[in-house]
Structure formats: structure tokens, C-alpha cells
Amino acid sequence: MTLKKTLAAALLAASVLSAPAHAAGALTISSPQDPGNWDPIDTFLVNWASVATNIFDGLTYRGPDLELVPGLATEWEELDEGTRIRFTLREGVTFHNGEPFNAEAVRYTFERLLGEEGASGPQQSNYTAIEEVEVIDDYTVDFHLSEPDPVLLTKLAGYGAMIVPPQYIEENGEDHFDMNPVGTGPFKFVSYQERESIELEAFEDHWDGAPELDTVTYRFITEPSTAVAELQAGRVDIVIPPTIPVGMISTIEEQEDLSIVSVASPTVQALRFNTANGITENEDVRKAIIMAIDRQAIIDTILQGEAEPITSFQGPLSFGNDPEMEPIPYDPEAAKALLQEAGVEPGATVQIDVRGNDATFGEVAQAVAAYLSVIGINATVQPYETNVLLNDIIPEGRTGEMFQQAWGGWTFDFDNTAYLMYHTGERWNPYDSDAELDALLEEQRSITDRAERERLLKEIARYTADRALEVPLYNVNALYGVNDRVQNFEAAPDSRLRLTDVTVEE
Amino acid sequence: MPDAAPSRPGQAKTARRQSSFKALEFILGVILVGGIGLAVLFSGFLFPGGGSAVDLAARLTPPLVDMAHPLGTDPLGRDVLARVIVGGEISLTVGLVSVAGAVVIGVVMGLVSGYYRGFWDVVVMRFADVQLALPFILLAITFIAIVGGGLINTIVLLIVSQWVQYARLVRGSVLSLRDREFIQSARAIGVRDIKILFQHLLPNLLGPVIVLMTLNVANNILLEASLTFLGLGVDPTIPSWGGMLAEGRTYLQTAWWVSVFPGLAILLTVLGLNLLGDWLRDTLDPTGRTRV
After folding, report:
1. What is the ipTM of this complex?
2. In A107, A195, A405, B52, which residue has its Cα 20 to 30 A from B134's Cα atom?
3. CB-nearest partner of A301 from B59, B145, B232
């Protein structure tokens, strides 16, 4: 009996020793969302990109510094006044399955994206400027554009423009590719359990050199407190955004071997106005509401400084942001006077629609309600299930006087926000129609001259601020919780993680 | 059990112990429910501001640090004590009104279908079956997605989802009562149906209904809490126990007081109501024939 026990204990000890919690070079990441499909043309989820940026490459590449550099194309040239772009492709690149990368793969990728298969996904509409991809020789392609697209080169660095293997897809079918992605990236796909995890391993033959890590496992953990508990227990090494609520920062920082890495993100939060109904129909009332809210105080307390104030519906990193623009100042007295002039009686009501599952914003909305009560407006907060708010309430124009809108395009270009938010008839613009604004928005779309386009985007930002179309609240930081054993980790503002240089300590 | 003859003194002792436990149940239940009820009833007088005064500079003050906030403050700097007591208003209103509504509808439906049987009975009971087959959360999310959240809608949802229990309970009792002599004789001498239903049948089945009510009030406070927790319940600017719990969740490890005190309030209220319900069941139905 005793012998048996000792033996068992020894075996147990041995097995514990031989199998430490982390194998050498293994990294575990907690991600809040399982995209459920790994095909680049079937998704628009940020958390798809935080995995798939390691599996796929684009013709161009944009890393954490947001600089556009060569990817699978070594150089490119704009011809015919921006309506033709010639790419020279990298030679000697292979896909994970051994298939060679060449001009044919590029043509296949974009024909697929712009054809029938792409039409069933959300990515196609971002690339409609591409009319045709012409193969010049094995390593040269020409993109023919219907009109110049100033953001195209950036868009080629991510999402729908990821280069896919033609032979593999043709042989195995689309459904197989959805669940078993193959690309040219630094990590190759190993296995995927729905709503559970996806595992990748190093691709030794990557054109930019093999990654340091042996394997990377992403676990899908939706609940923030669970993800943070796993981080504290050492069972995950990195918790990626958008998971960690600001309120949990100190929980993580209190533990010695964990740190918070925060980086500016594209995500901006605004309370947009219903300009068609209620007291917010009046521009002066909207301005009074903006003046009544001490946005800096909200950032300093509720957001614990993990956000930047904004003056229009974009962050400081966005192309088209004007650092010269002055925010409407916090001035409750002037707000009261403005309300009185507009003929709004004390006790007027305003309803603020928010996403029910966003704890931090729930606090912000309540603070806003408290600020509004100071100038005599009774604000109620109406939480909705996120999908209901986004698919039903906002697009159909059934919101209260104010509603939460969180937005952030990974391209960091104001066009992505402004056109969808302000152009007449767009899904996210249920209330307003302004011919002058429409003209500005359309004009900037076809200009490739960067300076001129930036000027126009700034003008749009000013115009919308003058009309007080929303309360610009803040640009939140992306928060990563990281175990100190992770080295060389550079947090990406757009959550598109590329883990080539990351190492882990034992 | 060995089949030795039970000794009389031992039995008496158990009975005495049981009855003193019953008394204790009653006293504790009254103290808890009464105390919380009174505090909530006079909350407007105790905290005229309703605990809604925001002070961002004083956010997350721990308990007993600042005597203006004996139980500390929440992430917006609002007084936790005031909010727990004022928040009881929503929780108790939801609990009591929803049960009252469910009882009225359920009892009338149950009486009518049990007494008249036939077509009406089939319709009501099949409808009840269908509804019982739907999980509550599914019903709640669908309902709120269609008509929206808010206090009134939450109460309506709870009524809609719970009248079935009363209807079934009452119908069962009516079925066993309607052929008894006193009902038969009442019908024989020509008493009108409405009088039979409400004067002869109703008093005889009120016991189990009251017991089910006390259990359901507690249950509905918890359901309101979980709906608000999911962001589907009442306006978060109005304090409620469930809402406070949800808001405190992210601060559980750094500011426990935000969620522990409203949790405690729910715990004590539910405990008090359950104790009263137990006592009421033992008192109204000492033989324990009722199955709830």
C-alpha cells in the first residue's frame, strides 16, 4: 500500500516536472470573440484579424507603427492618374501547403473577393474600386481601378485583401477553407474548436524569417472577469482587447508579474443626436447638451485617463483629424442660457440609448445623465441588447434623443467614419440629410492628392462639429493585459497582432 | 430504523422544538421583511436625493472612511447606503406588483377553466403548456427585444411568464372541489356561478396560492436582478439591487462594497420572505398536503 502510494506520488511528481504549464515557446492568448469562420472575405471582426494577421499576408503590410511597408509586393507604382497600380511581387514565397505564391494567386484572390463568393461576405464593398487584376508576368500585376481610391493601399494590408491559395481552395472547397485556413503568414493553422480555441504553429519557411515562438493558442473567453482570472492564474499570457474594462486595470496591476499595456486605438465613442425628433432637433439645444458635459472629468475618473478627448468623431491617429480644432468648452451656465433661449423648459426629457453589455459606457451614460440634470434636463438611460441596438434601433431610426455609437475603422481614415455616419441614406445616418455635407463627402472620395483630401476631411469634421451632430466623447485606449514572461510584445493600435518577434520566458 | 416503540416524551420534545423553530421562523421573517419594508417605505424621507447625487471626485470611497458615505461610494461617487435602500423600492415594487398581477390573472383563469371545463379549459391549459415549455430567459430576451426594457415592461414580462403557475394550481384545486357536496348543493339551490366561484371555491383554495405568492415574490426580486444584470431590466439611473450588482461586478476585486451590499440586501429580503412563506405553509396547511 505504502509502496504504491510512494510510487504514485513519484509518478505524479515526474509528470508534473516533465509537463510544465507552458511548453517552451508556447504562447496563450485570450480573445473575446470567436469569428466562427477564418476566410478573409467572410468577416469584419477585429478579433478575426488579431488571429489571422499571423496566418495571412497582404500585398502591403502595416504594423503597430501604422506605417505602410511592402508585404507580398516589394514595390508598387501608381499609373494613369491613380487608376492603375502596378505591383512587383516577392519571389520565392510559398503558402503553408507548399503551393507557390505568384501573380496568379493575386488575381485569384481578388476575383474571388469581387465575384460571387465575395458577394456573400461583408468585405467586398471595401474593394469595389478595383475593376480588374491583370497578370503581366509571374511576378507583376496591374490593378485597374474604376476611380482612384486613396485608401486602397492601406486596405490591401488587411482583412478582405489577404492573399489566399488558389489550388488549395479549388481542391478542398470553400467550406473546408472557412475552417482550415491556409496563407503565407508566419504561423500556420493547426486546429480549431468552435467557441473554444484555435491553435497555430510556426511556419519555418516564412519569407520574413521563422517566428521565435513554436506555437500560439488563442482561447475565446467572452466574459472579462473570467479572462482576467485566467491571466492572474497564469493560464493565459495575454488578454487582448476589447476585453478588459477600465475598472479592472488596478486588479491586474496589483499583481506583480502582470502589467497593462495600453495603446491608442481607432475606437471612438460618441453620443449621437436624434436630429429629427425631440428637443435635440434644435441645434442650439444640441450645443447646450455638449457644453453641459464635463468630458475631461469623465476621462480622468471613470476612464482613469485611458482615453483622449476628441473634437470630432475620430481620434488623433485618424487621417483627417484636425489638432487645431477647439472642443466646445464645458460651461453649464452658458448651456442653461442657451437652453432658455431655445425655449426648452426645465424638466425636458432626453433618452440615452446604450449597449447593455458595455459596463464602462454604462457608467459614462449615467454620468452624462447627472450632468444634464444640472442644466434642467431629465435624462433616462435605456440599455439595449447590442445586436438589437445595432441592427434594429439605430438603422431604423427608433432611438431616443441620444444614442451611443462606438466606431473605429482599422484604416484610420476619417472617410470610413464620416461617409457612413453623415451621408444621406446611409445605414448609420437614420435622421439627417444635408446636401452640402453630402457633396463634401462625395468629393473627397475620388481625390488621390493626400493634402487636398486631408483638407476636405478636416472641413467635414468642422462642419459636423458646427452643426453639433454628436457629443464627441473620447478615443479609448486599447488595453492589453500581459504576463511579464512575454518578451518583445508590441501592442497594436488596431488589434491586428503579428507575433513574429515575440518570445516567452520559462 | 430499528422498530423499537417510539417513546412519547421524545416525540413531545421534537414537537416542541418544531413549534419553537416555527415561532423563530416567523419572528425572523417578520423582522427581516418588516425592517427592510419600513426602510424602503421611508427611503424618500431618509434620503431625499434618492442616492442619485453624482460626485466623480469621491468615486469608489471604501466603507467607514467618509462618514457621509458609511457604506462607501460606487464608481460614480454615489452613496451606496442610500442607493441600497432607495433601490429596494424598485426591487420590492417589481416583486410585489408582478406577483399580484400574476395571481389575479392566474386565479381567474384557473377558476374558470377548472369550473366550466370544456373548450375554454382546453384552450387555457394548452396555452399554459406551450408557455411552460419556453425557457424564461428566451422569453425575456424576445419580449424585451420587441417591446423594450423598463420598469413596466419588466413587470408585464414577469406577469406573463408566471400566471400559468397560479392557473394550474387553482385549476387542480377546483377540479377536486367542484364535485364536493357543498358546491353541489349550492348549485342545486340555484346560486349563480359567479357567486360559487368567488364565495365558495376561492376561499377554499387560497392557502396554497398565498404560499406560492411568498415564494414568487422572492423569486421575482431575483429575476428582476438578473434581468437588470443582463442589461434588459429597468433604467440604470434608477437604483435597483440587480443593477447595482451588475455595476459592481467589474470592481469585485478592488471595490467589493459596490456589489456586496446590494447582494446582502437581496439575500436578507429573500431569506425573510422564504421564512414567512414556510411559516405560512405550516400554519395554513399543517398536514402538508399542498404541493407547490
Report:
1. 0.73
2. A195
3. B59
Average pLDDT over residues B172-194: 90
Please check the confidence at residue B234 and state whether its pLDDT lies above 90.
Answer: no
Per the structure block, which three cell numbers stand in for B53? 447625487
Residues A288 and A368 in one domain: yes
- Cβ contact (<8 Å) for B250 and A381? no
What is the pLDDT averaged over residues B81-103?
92
Q: In the predicted model, is pLDDT for residue A10 greater than 50?
A: no
A248 and A197, same structural domain?
A: yes
C-alpha cell at B10: 421524545
Higher pLDDT, A19 or A183: A183
A248, A303, A349, A391: best to mutate for the B interface, most B CBs within 10 A: A248
Shared domain for A23 and A98, answered yes or no, is: no
| Domain carrying residue A141 | 40-169
* Phi and psi based region of residue A234 (left: phi greater than 0; alpha: psi -120 to 50; beta: remaining): left
| Domain termination residue (choose one: A123, A142, A169) | A169
Is A176 inside any structural domain?
A: no
- Put simply, the answer to whether B232 touches A383 (Cβ < 8 Å) is yes
Spatial separation of the C-alpha atoms in residues B92 and B99, rounded to whole Å: 11
Ordered by start, the domain boundaries in chain B are 2-288
Question: Given this model, what pLDDT does residue B9 score?
Answer: 54
B151 contacts chain A (CB < 8 A): no
> What average pLDDT does the segment A98-127 reach?
93
- CB contact under 8 Å between B76 and A247, yes or no, is no
Total of domains in chain A? 3
- Name the residue facing A385 among B76, B232, B237 (closest C-beta): B232
Q: Which helix (H) or strand (E) holds B82?
A: helix B80-116
A164: in domain: yes
What residues in B contact A245, CB-CB < 8 Å?
250
User: B2-288: what fold?
Assistant: MetI-like fold (1.10.3720)
Per residue in A204-242, pLDDT tens?
999 999 999 999 999 999 888 899 999 999 999 999 998
Q: Give the SS3 label for residue A206.
A: coil
Q: How many angstroms separate the CA of residue A201 from the nearest CA in chain B?
A: 34
Residue A104 lies in a domain: yes
According to DSSP, the β-strands at A348-355 and A377-384 are parallel
User: Which chain B positions have a beta carbon within 8 Å of A355's beta carbon?
Assistant: 231
CATH number at residue A111: 3.90.76.10
Q: pLDDT tens, A161-206?
A: 999 999 999 999 999 999 999 999 999 999 999 999 999 999 999 9
Would you call A301 and B249 a contact, using CB atoms and an 8 Å cutoff?
Answer: no
Q: Are residues A324 and A455 in the same domain?
A: yes
Confidence of residue B222 (pLDDT cuts 50, 70, 90): confident
Which residues in chain B have their CB less than 8 angstroms from residue A254's CB? 254
- Do B247 and A362 make contact, defined as CB atoms within 8 angstroms? yes
8 A C-beta contact, residue B251 and residue B258: yes
Question: What three-state secondary structure class fits A207?
Answer: coil
Say yes or no: A472 and A485 in one domain.
Answer: no
Strands A470-483 and A307-309: antiparallel
* Minimal Cβ distance to B250: which of A245, A383, A388: A245
Best B235, B252, B256 member to test A by mutation, with max A CBs in 10 Å, is B235
Return the C-alpha cell found at B91. 426591487
CB within 8 Å: A367 and B141: no
Rg (CA), chain B: 23
Q: Are residues A293 and A366 in the same domain?
A: yes
Place of cell 513574429: A500
Q: Taking CB atoms and an 8 Å limit, are A247 and B251 in contact across chains?
A: yes
Number of C-alpha atoms within 13 angstroms, CB side, residue B88?
Answer: 27
Tell me the mean pLDDT in the region A270-276: 96
Residue A197 lies in a domain: yes
Query: Of residues A300 and A120, which shows the higher confidence score?
Result: A300
Q: Is the pLDDT of residue B287 over 80?
A: no
Provide the b/e sequence for B172-211 (b: ≥16 CB within 10 Å): ebbeebbeeeebeebeeeeeeeeebbeebbbeebebbbeb
B49 touches A at CB < 8 Å: no
Same domain, A435 and A483: no
